[in-house]
């Protein structure tokens, strides 16, 4: 945790600002959020995952945010919220507001004279802004971040250090991009021709909507012909790979290490688990949940949860089961043969 | 798509330059490539994937590139090519040539006086060129890219921003490296010794052949003793990890997120699907295709296609099947026992 | 291999410094380590993996390091070591010592006046050191590396180029971080709220112990509330993703491309194979080995080896077996029914 704790708020003030039902002493003051496990008396914790229910009894927190379901008596004040995790997010934002942007262009930044910079823009040392770049007001461009020719960043964009955005890409408002991400590199377009690969020019862009967050070292390739599109409110974790001409629907959230092959279209409000993959040229409808480590090889037309991870086990059991798996087709045939035999036997008897 | 469209060419001129059979009006002019779906009348589209056959009827393209198999009548002119995707790649390259390198060293680049720079070299702002680096003619080194001591880049090398190449590594001619890639970091060489890991010095290099393209945020480790080698014409997508002392054969193409463990040797003209893995110390022969999400745990001595992804399904079915999978070895034993019993039963009867 | 070979040592000198039993001529001199396959007569090779036993007969090495088990006669001198790979690591370190740090701040580095720099520190061109950073003595900060406000790096830290460390993170002594790694980016903390994702402020830090090595393009997220912790001696390969509030126990080694979801705790001396995943909120005890491509979905309380990769096979066999896998639950039911039937049949007879 940071060393400097923010000024305190009473529980009454918190409920006054954010709603929720307060049970207990409204004058109790807290000055930071905390986990149940490590909470100090001047902090407020939350319970959103039943896994941590046992910690409620031992926590030293001054108050706790809980869901409506929790009926157990508590010694400490509680705020009952319909969605305790979202409520917690809001409380944390009260105590930990995003620091105001410090406007200014560092003398060690390299800004092309034909770039257009909005009011309040910050550009860090070593950042490189090429010709024709447009930065909306209050954008923050981190040290060492490179924006290629013609890149547009909407107002309030926050690019951390060492990000690379290739020429022509367009980012919406309030986009956050973490360090090491690469937006708009060439898609993997190659054509086999007489024993050699021919490069297919990648002339599309990456177009990113408003309120998108992109994790560290994530890569989003530019389109081969048309654009790669990330719609509003999409949240991408770290080390995700988005192939050329993919479209990701609004408010979809994707966990780390996922790979999405070229030209696939993912719906709105989907949730994709870590290290999953989406093969190319598929369509996934809205509200689909993909479990971790799943490879999606066909389009999905119905909302729901889809899974394809091999169930792990101790190595000895795995060896036996995996060896059997290699003969599963044959086993199925043998079972069918026995079923026939038993059926024939019955007929013979009757 | 880019705003400025290139000058137009007639279909007759295209076929004159690139071959293929033109059916229809040779005077029709086009000025860019397009997808069937979004084509305008002054563009030429292509059909290489039958998935998009339906779009042929509704496209507004001025012409289309198709394979010899397609026999359907079309209203618009078509160019028939043996390999329509490769033909399309060439047409696109006509309209979208690689921009000529702008020679020059940006004043904010840091170039060691003992570096040797060929004619026509470009070095972007914030790029760092250490002692003993050799850049062939017409190399382009992007902003923020760092080349360690003694690195060699052959002529026409194109390194995008924020690439890192460690000391001593050698890149062939016309190599393209996308942003964030790291070439020549230490391999994962550690020896367990009395409850602690001892670092094994990594004294090999990475040696990369001609016409290799390396995707964004891909990492290729230097050899532990001998070199890690990427042969001519290899194409690596984004976020691939190549371990120390791996050798990748010429013209092999590897999709994103693949990991190749140390000392494995991959043949020529292989194709490896996204997020697959190759365990260490294996040998994969030429012309092997590995499907996506497959872990290769043994050497492969015969060309062909190899697969190992768990088939995804809706979560309810997956739960049932995966639970059964954990007992598959036992199920196999039970089936064998029944087969014996049925056999015995027959003997008893006869 | 590097061009300049180090000065030679006799086998007697090597055994004098590092122990081990020498069999053969102690005056034989070597000047570098080598692989059995490519060894020259003035080098010393090693055999730690039986896979390479055949190369012992043909190697041109001047000497070889072997384990106690190897009883075959050899023409060349050998050093017998309990742990030949660790012994080799030490011999290689004799010939290939880490180059001494060249102290100094490059004029193109950007160092905040409120940073505190120990003696002997090196800061490369384009590196950015923000306010309140503390660098221990003999730290080396590579070109283009960015350290956010308040970052601490212990003595002897070695950060390669283009690393990003976010504000407030703390690195122990002798930490090595390879190029492109990102330490302390925001964890993936989002709360669904009325059809949109709400960002949860990530106010923890990343705290890294002594003697940790972190591979190229690996990402370690800062904690949501408490810190993400990497204990002493942990070794992380390239392209690993460590989620917020993870704790990795001392001397655990993790191969490339692994993803660890938020709040999981991994024990000491674990070994995790490439491209594996650990789901969130789990606890893995000490001395656990996870095979490559395994998704761990439950806590592990017993030391041992755990596996969950789909066994790969040629595509034709895979198709048949995978299709059967989709019906495995049903097959199990059918087998149970047959077993019942056979049992009934017996009863009927008796």
Task: Write a brief caption for the model.
3 copies of one chain form a homotrimer. The first copy, chain A, has 350 residues and is α/β, with parallel strands linked by helices.
Defining key terms:
4 helices, ten-stranded parallel β-sheet, alpha/beta, flat, 350 residues, Udp-n-acetylmuramoylalanyl-d-glutamate--2,6- Diaminopimelate Ligase, Chain: A, domain 1, UDP N-Acetylglucosamine Acyltransferase, domain 1, 3 domains, 40 strands, homotrimer
Describe the structure.
The structure is a homotrimer of 350-residue chains. The first copy, chain A, has 350 residues and is α/β, with parallel strands linked by helices. The first copy, chain A, folds into 3 domains: 9-95, Udp-n-acetylmuramoylalanyl-d-glutamate--2,6- Diaminopimelate Ligase, Chain: A, domain 1; 104-306, UDP N-Acetylglucosamine Acyltransferase, domain 1 (3 Solenoid); 315-349. Chain A has 4 helices and 40 strands. An 11-stranded parallel β-sheet of chain A has the order 8-11-14-17-20-25-28-31-34-37-39, with no helix packed on it. In chain A, strands 9-12-15-18-21-26-29-32-35-38 form a 10-stranded parallel β-sheet, with no helix packed on it. A 9-stranded parallel β-sheet of chain A has the order 10-13-16-19-24-27-30-33-36, with no helix packed on it. In chain A, a hairpin with a 2-residue loop joins β22 (190-193) and β23. The first copy, chain A, starts with 8 loop residues before the first strand and ends with a helix. The mean pLDDT of chain A is 95. At the A-B interface, β22, β23, β38, β39 and α3 of A face β4, α2, β40, α3 and α4 of B. β39 of chain B pairs antiparallel with β40 of chain C.
């Amino acid at each position: 945790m940071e060393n400097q704790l923010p000024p305190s708020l009473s529980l009454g003030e918190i409920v006054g600002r954010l709603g929720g039902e307060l049970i207990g002493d409204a004058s109790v003051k807290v000055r930071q959020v905390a986990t149940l496990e490590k909470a100090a008396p001047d902090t407020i914790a939350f319970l959103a995952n039943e896994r941590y229910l046992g910690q409620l009894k031992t926590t030293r927190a001054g108050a706790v945010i809980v869901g409506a379901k929790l009926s157990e008596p508590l010694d400490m004040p509680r705020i009952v919220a319909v969605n305790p995790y979202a409520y917690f997010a809001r409380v944390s934002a009260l105590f930990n507001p995003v620091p105001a942007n410090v406007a200014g262009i560092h003398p060690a930044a390299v800004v092309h004279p034909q770039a257009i910079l909005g009011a309040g823009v910050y550009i860090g040392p070593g950042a490189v802004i090429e010709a024709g770049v447009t930065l909306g007001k209050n954008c923050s461009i981190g040290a060492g971040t490179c924006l290629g020719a013609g890149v547009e960043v909407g107002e309030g964009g926050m690019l951390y250090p060492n990000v690379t955005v290739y020429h022509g890409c367009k980012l919406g408002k309030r986009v956050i991009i973490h360090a090491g991400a690469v937006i708009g590199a060439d898609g993997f377009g190659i054509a086999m021709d007489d024993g050699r690969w021919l490069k297919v020019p990648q002339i599309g862009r990456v177009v990113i909507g408003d309120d998108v967050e992109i994790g560290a070292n994530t890569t989003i390739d530019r389109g081969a012909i048309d654009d790669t599109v990330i719609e509003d409110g999409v949240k991408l974790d770290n080390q995700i790979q988005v192939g050329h001409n993919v479209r990701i629907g609004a408010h979809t959230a994707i966990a780390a290490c996922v790979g999405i092959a070229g030209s696939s279209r993912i719906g709105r409000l989907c949730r994709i688990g870590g290290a999953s993959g989406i093969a190319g040229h598929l369509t996934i409808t809205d509200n689909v949940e993909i479990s971790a480590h799943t490879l999606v090889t066909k389009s999905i037309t119905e909302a729901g949860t889809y899974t394809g991870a091999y169930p792990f086990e101790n190595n000895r059991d795995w060896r036996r089961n995996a060896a059997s798996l290699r003969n599963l087709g044959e086993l199925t045939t043998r079972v069918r043969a026995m079923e026939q035999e038993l059926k024939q036997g019955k007929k013979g008897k009757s």
